[in-house]
Amino acid sequence: MTKLDRTDARLLLALCDIPRATGVHLASVLGLARNTVQARLSRWDDSHTLAPMDRLVSPRDLGYPLRAYVGAVTDQHRLEAVIDRLRDIAEVTEVVGVSGGADLQIGVSAADADDLYRVAGLILAVPGVERTTVSVVMREAIPYRTRPLIERLARENDNS
């Protein structure tokens, strides 16, 4: 089930192509009423459908070119406290709960290998973190993306 429909998908694709477009311009390009576009943009804003702007800023441009993922095994009784403490480490860019050998995968950005060592130590020092493994990103093969999913939504609803 999706919260978005074909019109939403068309509007999102237009924003992917022209991120700074005004509501009036988007309405014109898509053949929609300006109020329809504004209502959808407002709804997305209210429901946090679009990711925050900081997701668009590359850590590389901020002086942190080295990326890594830290797998962390945690004391399950302290998991939420661990996550709260990880929020305080500026170099932590994301944290996801996973199944498998680790409980958390922690995305980090660092200035260099020495800085990564320091950040990994900060993570390991969080009460409730029992052990960690670090995997350095050698190359970004497919950057985070949702456009193919948006395109699919636009196509699937074409036939209904």
Secondary structure elements and their pairing?
Blueprint: H1 6-17, H2 23-30, H3 34-47, E1 66-74, H4 79-86, E2 92-97, E3 104-110, H5 113-124, E4 129-136, H6 147-156
Antiparallel strand pairs: 1-3, 1-4, 2-3
Helix pairs in contact: 1-6, 2-3
Describe the protein in words.
With 160 residues, the chain is of the alpha+beta class. The chain folds into two domains: 6-50, Arc Repressor Mutant, subunit A, CATH 1.10.10; 59-136, Lrp/AsnC effector binding domain/regulation of amino acid metabolism (RAM) domain (Alpha-Beta Plaits, 2-Layer Sandwich). The protein is built from six helices and four strands, in the order αααβαββαβα. It has a four-stranded antiparallel sheet. α2 (23-30) crosses α3. The two termini are 15 Å apart. It comes from Rhodococcoides corynebacterioides. One of its GO terms (molecular function) is DNA binding. Keywords: DNA-binding. This is DNA-binding Lrp family transcriptional regulator. Residues 74-140 form the Transcription regulator AsnC/Lrp ligand binding domain.
Work out the helicity level.
Answer: 40-55%
Structural class: alpha+beta
H/I helix tally = 6
Stretches with pLDDT under 50, minimum 5 residues: none
Rg on CA atoms, Å = 20 Å
Distance between the ends: 15 Å
The total count of strands amounts to: 4
Question: CATH class of the largest domain, anyone?
Answer: Alpha Beta
H-E string: HHHEHEEHEH
**Count of spatially separate domains:** 2
Write the CATH fold name of the largest domain.
Alpha-Beta Plaits
Query: What spatial order of strands do you see in the largest sheet?
Result: 2-3-1-4
For the record, the CATH architecture of the largest domain stands as 2-Layer Sandwich
